[in-house]
Write a structure and sequence with these properties.
Number of strands: 0
Largest sheet: none
Number of helices: 9
Helix content: 55-70%
Mean pLDDT: 84
Low-confidence stretches: none
Order of helices and strands: HHHHHHHHH
Radius of gyration: 26 Å
Structural class: mainly alpha
Strand content: under 5%
Length: about 170
C-alpha cells in the first residue's frame, strides 16, 4: 500500500504539482477506496463485538442480519450464561419488533432459562416480553414468567411493578 502511494506521488513532479493537484487527490481517493475494500474485516471474538454489531444492524433496519450476528455469537465458546442470555434476549427483541411472537417467546425462554439462578435488575421491557407470550397464545407461560419475575423482589423491589400485570393475566385469562 505504501509503495502504491509512493509511486502515485512520485510520478508527479513538484513543478507540475500545482497543475496536477486534482489528479493526485483523485488517485489518493482511489487508493483509499481500494484499501477500504480489500482490508480484512475485524473478526468478532467477544460478546460485545456481536452485541454491538447486532445493534448497529438493527439501527440500519437490517433485522435478519442482526439475528444472524447474534446467532453467530451464540456459537462462541467461553460466553457466560448472562452473555448467552443477552444474545437470546436481543434476538427475542428483534422478533418482537417484527411481530413474530412465537420466535420471540422461544428466544425469551432460552434467555430466562440461562439466568434463572442469576440476579438481574428489573426492566420495564419485561411487560412487553410478557405481552409477547400472550400474543403467541402462551398465556400460562406468561403467568409463570410473571410469577418467576415477581419472586425477584427479594433483591430488587422494582419487580413489584409486575403485580398489576399478574392480576390482569389472572382475571383476563382464568
Amino acid at each position: 500500500m505504501v509503495h502504491l502511494v509512493y509511486r502515485t506521488i512520485a510520478k508527479y513532479s513538484l513543478e507540475n504539482l500545482v497543475y496536477d493537484a486534482s489528479l493526485v487527490i483523485r488517485d489518493l481517493i482511489v487508493i483509499l477506496i481500494i484499501f477500504k475494500i480489500t482490508r480484512p474485516k475485524k473478526k468478532r471474538t467477544k460478546f460485545k463485538h456481536f452485541h454491538n454489531a447486532a445493534i448497529i444492524a438493527e439501527m440500519e433496519r437490517k433485522y435478519e442480519k442482526a439475528l444472524e450476528i447474534r446467532n453467530e455469537g451464540l456459537n462462541l465458546s467461553g460466553l457466560s450464561n448472562a452473555e448467552r442470555a443477552g444474545l437470546h434476549a436481543g434476538n427475542g427483541g428483534t422478533y418482537l419488533y417484527l411481530k413474530d411472537y412465537n420466535n420471540a417467546t422461544f428466544c425469551f425462554d432460552k434467555a430466562f432459562e440461562l439466568v434463572q439462578e442469576e440476579k438481574f435488575p428489573y426492566d420495564k421491557q419485561y411487560i412487553e416480553v410478557i405481552d409477547s407470550y400472550v400474543k403467541a397464545n402462551r398465556k400460562e407461560d406468561a403467568l409463570k414468567l410473571v410469577e418467576s419475575l415477581l419472586q425477584r423482589q427479594s433483591y430488587h423491589k422494582k419487580f413489584k411493578k409486575l403485580e398489576p400485570v399478574r392480576e390482569k393475566l389472572l382475571t383476563k385469562y382464568n
